[in-house]
Specification:
The chain is an alpha/beta fold and 505 residues long. The chain has helices at residues 129-138, 151-159, 179-186, 188-202, 216-229, 248-256, 276-286, 318-325, 380-384, 391-399, 403-408, 419-423, 430-485, 488-504; strands at 5-6, 30-31, 37-41, 50-52, 59-60, 65-69, 77-78, 83-92, 100-108, 165-170, 207-212, 234-239, 271-275, 294-300, 308-313, 334-337, 344-346, 359-363. The structure holds iron/sulfur cluster (SF4) (2 copies).
């Protein structure tokens, strides 16, 4: 087995943070049992909302489609166990989908009866890439690193560019989260198999599997699996442990020394990045015909009695997952879905685990708090920003609601990594302010687009009415002309036509 390559970091800024991953990585991934009830948000991806295709009272099987994508960007949702649909209603959900979202609620029957797919698994290598992409879409696969972008559409977009490298992202750089680490230790062969499927879909012959230096077991076991696979298109790379080197653009820079342009995508510089969990999910669907109905998530923090990684079905409530691990400790005050820097605080554990849930973090509140003070212009935030933005300046313009300046100073390039928050001596919640400002800019852009579409419709209608008036005038002139030359019978016919026309109008 060849030793993994070690690349020196080429990132701007970033932070070396304490990992806090030891407690959740002492044991293997544990399987959470089937809950009594599953709550499946019908939209668990970036893009257009999906639409339910089941009705209340209907019995569904594990793996059965319950919501199908509508629009160009979307992903289906499948039942993660068998049971009866008892409600389709708004339910509190976490992450970026607002406080409540429409969910299909399934009362599980405990039998876990799977749907027999009519079509058996095919030899993916014999499929044309377009057919393979259509299959990936059917499996409900989305990016499991947290971005939840529908994988098939990401691949479709990449196929319109010249792609040189597939980069599998095993750089789990945010503190506390260790689900990818455990997955790489326990299922390296599935990850590599998913990489081979992805390479076939992209029709390329080069894949880097990138892992941070603080994951020696994962590096070792992936190396062993690679040696067994004997496919020299796949290369393992080790990178230094720096937050946020797992960001897509940062990873591309770190591994290939190519810089993703502002507002651009890794595909603009010949790269496509996929999370290692996504690769394993593609293997599970394309090779084993199991759609994306469960995921590995880290349950950790000093508010959790027994930190660990679990595999839970999509739709299991956070309360059920935490209970399975042994419950909360007396230090449980603050529940975060995701990591401490990029996660979202929630006020109830009755929210369901979704495809994006890579971590359930429960902490003692004061460990993440400090009183906000005025900015002292120290510049520390700028020195750690991996995008080389000026957070103090952005903060100023966000407070002033100055959209033009926010755009000009690159707010839309901010990856919301939270590094600026961590170093700010004044405890200013910069990232939260940037999130709100970005939301406002997007809303304004949406409003502008809506107004523009309405203007186009109005103008097109006016043009149509004008054309119809001109046609009518021309017809009238033609009729007058022929009436001058007509006899009594033809005049009667013209009068009849005119009467008919005025009735129609
Ligand atoms: S949150 Fe945005 S502004 Fe702050 S360090 Fe990260 S990328 Fe830079
Ligand atoms: S780190 Fe905080 S106090 Fe220092 S310049 Fe940035 S926002 Fe201001």
């Amino acid at each position: 087995m060849s030793a993994p390559t070690y690349d020196l970091g080429k990132l701007h800024g970033g932070l070396r943070l304490p990992g806090h991953k030891e407690k959740s990585t002492t044991g293997p991934i544990q399987n959470v049992p089937i809950p009594s009830q599953l709550i499946l948000p019908i939209t668990q991806h970036v893009g257009d909302p999906a639409q339910p295709v089941v009705g209340i009272g209907e019995h569904v099987l594990k793996g059965q489609l319950v919501a199908k994508p509508e629009g160009a960007l979307g992903a289906p949702v499948h039942a993660s166990s068998s049971g009866t649909v008892v409600a389709i209603e708004p339910w509190p959900v976490s992450r970026r989908f607002g406080e409540k979202g429409p969910c299909v609620v399934i009362e599980c029957d405990g039998e876990d009866r799977p749907l027999e797919f009519e079509q058996a698994a095919e030899d993916y290598a014999s499929l044309p890439p377009e057919t393979l992409l259509a299959r990936i879409l059917e499996g409900g696969i989305v990016g499991l690193g947290g971005a939840v972008f529908p994988t098939a559409q990401k691949l479709m977009q990449a196929r319109t560019c010249e792609i040189d490298y597939l980069i599998l992202n095993g750089v789990e750089c945010e503190p506390y989260i260790s689900c990818d680490d455990l997955l790489m230790r326990e299922r390296p062969a599935a990850i590599l198999s998913g990489a081979q499927v992805l390479m076939h879909a992209l029709q390329i012959d080069a894949c880097y599997i990138v892992v941070e230096s603080d994951k020696p077991e994962a590096l070792n076991l992936l190396g062993v699996a690679l040696a067994e696979l004997d496919d020299d298109r796949l290369v393992l790379k080790q990178v230094p442990t720096i937050y946020p080197s797992g960001g897509e653009d940062q990873l591309v820079q770190l591994v290939t020394n190519r810089e993703v342009p502002s507002g651009g995508l890794p595909s603009d510089v010949g790269c496509l990045v996929q999370n290692v969990g996504t690769a394993a999910a593609i293997h599970d669907w394309i090779i084993n015909r199991e759609p994306l109905i469960s995921r590995v998530t880290t349950v950790t923090g000093d508010g959790i009695s027994n930190p660990m990684n679990v595999r839970a079905r999509i739709g299991t409530t956070i309360a059920d997952v935490v209970e399975f691990t042994g419950g909360y400790s007396e230090r449980a005050e603050h529940l975060i879905i995701g990591g401490p820097l990029t996660g979202k605080s929630v006020t109830t554990d009755r929210v369901p685990l979704v495809k994006a849930t890579n971590s359930i973090l429960v902490v003692f509140k004061s460990s993440f708090q400090g009183d906000e003070l005025a900015c002292i212009r120290c510049g520390d935030c700028a020195s750690v920003c991996p995008i080389q933005l000026l957070p103090q300046q952005l903060f100023w313009y966000a407070c002033a609601d100055n959209e033009d300046k926010l755009r000009q100073f690159g707010l839309l390039d901010c990856i919301e990594c939270g590094c600026c928050d961590l170093v700010c001596p004044s405890h200013i919640p910069l990232t939260a302010d940037f999130r709100i400002a970005k939301g406002r800019i997007r809303e304004l852009a949406d409003e502008k687009a809506r107004a523009e579409r309405a203007r186009h419709r109005f103008e097109a209608r006016n043009e149509r009415l004008e054309r119809e008036r001109e046609d009518r005038d021309a017809e009238l002139a033609r009729q007058k002309e022929s009436a001058k030359k007509a006899g009594p019978a033809e005049i009667a016919e013209i009068l009849k036509r005119k009467q008919q026309q005025s009735e129609d109008d």
